[in-house]
Amino acid sequence: xxxxxxxVNGVIQQLEVDxxxxxxxxxxxxxxxxxxxxxxxxxxxxxxxxxxDEQAVCSCMILASQxxxxxxxxxxxxxxxxxxxxxxxxxxxxxGVQCGFCTPGVLMSTKALLDESHNPSDTExxxxxxxxxxxxxxxxxxxxxxxxxxxxxNIDKG
Length: 158
What we know:
The chain has helices spanning about 25-30, 80-95, 105-115, 120-130, 140-155; strands at about 1-10, 10-15, 50, 55-60, 70-75. The protein is an alpha+beta fold. Helix 2 crosses helix 3 (about 105-115), helix 2 (about 80-95) crosses helix 5 (about 140-155) and helix 3 (about 105-115) packs across helix 4 (about 120-130). The mean pLDDT is about 95.
């Protein structure tokens, strides 16, 4: 067992983890933050996306011990964030959420992108979402949702 210290959603966590524990295991099983989903377990679907030190990552592909000292944000950690709230509302309005399984990962990837730029290009949006698979929406409603928030953010800036 290794002792690690993480800041998860703004709260310092001191944990004991096995060498083979993934960040996903810690988030879901030890911290009970179950909004982060396990889909493929091989980094292909994006359902487990979290933000680690301002970068969107698949939490199934990173060992918890590699995150010692890191700042981790899960879907639960963005519930009060104004941009995340706009995204969630847009996903409902634009039909970007259907079954909802991929939605937390897509929202986390999008949040990381919008933290970098309030006006990303279409190519930057597609690049940010490249690792997120959705079987329900056909992606266009997801893109429409994101673009509506980008438009709103840029109108709000004046």
